Description:
five-stranded parallel sheet, alpha/beta, Rossmann fold
Amino acid sequence: AGADAVKFQNYRTEDFIFDKSLTYTYYNGGKQITESMYDMCKRCEVETHWLPELKKACDDLGIAFISTPTSEPGVNDLVALGVPFLKNGSDYLLHLPLLKHMGSTGIPVIISTGMGNESEIRDAVEAVHSGGGSPVILMHCTSSYPTETSEVNLNKIPALREVFGLPVGFSDHTIGSAAAIQAVTLGVSIFEKHFTLDHNLPGPDHEFSITPSELKEYVEDIHNAKKRMGQKSIEPALIEQTTRDELRLSIVIGSDLSAGHILEDQDFVFSKPGTGLPPKEAENIIGKKLVQDVAKGTPLRAEFIETIQDTKAEDNSIPQNSVVLVAGGAGFIGSHIVDKLISHANEVIVIDDLSTGKEKNINPQAKFYNLNISDNDRLQEVFRNHKIDYVIHQVAKINLNVMLEDPATDIKSSVLGTLNLLQCCVDFKIKKIVYASSVAVYGKVKKLPVRETDELAPIYSYGIAKKCSEEYFRYYCENYDINYSILRYANVYGPRQPIYGEVGVIAIYTDKVLKGEP
């Protein structure tokens, strides 16, 4: 069905029901049923010796095994299995001793907040934190089965996030997926839904739970809702990068003109396609000289006339007094970026393992850490020690022969290291990350000029790794609202560039010429 995790309950009924005369009323098969609460819960117990087998089944399927314990021994059983999360039910929100014990494990604790007010939820969170270092995730929950539309109160989700500063998920007890789709628009990325194999099975939850086919639709609805959300930026959709050339207007030459002609307003019209200069440049080109012959009906391009500049170019500069981390800041490109940032009154942190860069390239005013971005523990430590605003990712290998012989080096340095940086950007709320990719992602170029929207078809390991990293940037943007820019470098050259490897072809040729070598 596409779920990422399955959650069980490992409990002993005696842990929470002392009075066996208690009853519980629910609906099943359209009938109201009242029975002993003790008998109902006892019948549904998951035996302790089943847990390892259930965990293995989840591992084999590639989904996370999670469970809700009701006692300290139950917590310990789950810790011994290596579960990724511990879950506390809404009915145990006030069981602070158990929450404190969960917190002592260091495993992230998911707390359902059904029936709880702000003070009670705060006590629960503080109990987990007092136990140790366990992170906390809150789940908005209405403890009514099923939950009526008027009782869902999705606005509680941003309220919980604002008050507690914690991730907030949605424990969805409604019928269908409409509430979950709305929760996506509130930034929710963790969802819980009751599941059954058959609505007609005996028991309290089967009637309002979802079946395998319904769960598949539920998961698809959530993923599609996330896709519809797009990016939190005022930019055209990716598909519009292509359609705007077809649908927009540009400045089009109205008659055959010769090189040296001085442009006047009667020389052009505004017409489709949008592949030429936009109409907003009309005032800027009047009085400019053509540097080549231009045929009637040709969209006017900047290279046809004396140099003009877009007078309203977007300002993407990093503000002064920002804290900027430059990964790969000892390389020839990265070190120039560091110099420029420092010259604009920014605090700069450089991380580089010096495998290709040189420590002498690093501006002495920058703080330097000798580490590889694949070392996630040390990377996290750098982010904890500095309140970083922006990240510039310049890390890249420059020896293509090594990459061809051992593609795993690309995966480790380019992809896994990039994932570490992206996760740090999420964890430490970085404002923006800039990634140095490569034109290698295009593979064999079929036509010039190359456009950003052209097909990506890399043919070498280096380009494949760069493309893979770019896809992770889009994934993190969609799922974690990361703000990013990608730069696809071609044959960059300049001071401090090493005269070895294959990527610095211009520098290599220049060095040969200067030395009089063939």
